[in-house]
Specification:
With about 140 residues, the chain is mainly alpha-helical. It has helices spanning about 1-10, 15-25, 55, 80-85, 120-130, and strands at about 65-70, 95-100. It starts with a helix and ends with a helix. The relative contact order is 0.13.
């Protein structure tokens, strides 16, 4: 459902289709946890359809790619899609990591009931410093 909202904002789903999905799902127990903007105020933005994947295949410098396991913005399969896009030309120092318990901003979501004092996931900085330390 949240994905459908983002698809609408990115101009990939028409308003009526989104309203139909909202109507169909609004009685579900999880529905109150979904962000639904005022659809009459939404400014669509086709730039949300941008993908960097075609550019990854030409990169030769080492890359550190980290995905939050609790990311609600980027699909969970993104890490694998990036690895597949880079393919056999990958720099041997590339590192791909999914941090379970981290969101899109690498903030810890291990205690989602208390998000007022969120902090960076501890594995994020450790990973970054270790990776940078190689060079």
């Amino acid at each position: 459902m949240q994905g459908a909202v983002f698809e609408y904002i990115a101009s990939n789903l028409d308003k009526q289709s989104l309203e139909d999905r909202i109507s169909k799902n609004k009685s579900a127990s999880w529905f109150s946890h979904i962000w639904i903007p005022n659809l009459d105020e939404v400014v669509t933005d086709e730039k949300l359809n941008y993908t960097p994947l075609p550019y990854f295949k030409d990169l030769t410098s080492p890359l550190l790619i980290i995905e939050g396991g609790q990311d609600q913005v980027i699909p969970n399969s993104s890490l694998e899609k990036i690895q597949d896009s880079i393919g056999g030309k990958a720099n041997k120092k590339n590192t791909y990591l999914r941090i379970d318990g981290a969101d899109h901003s690498m903030m810890s979501r291990e205690n989602p009931d208390f998000s007022y004092w969120s902090s960076l996931h501890p594995d994020y900085l450790k990973t970054v410093f270790k990776w940078v330390g190689q060079f």
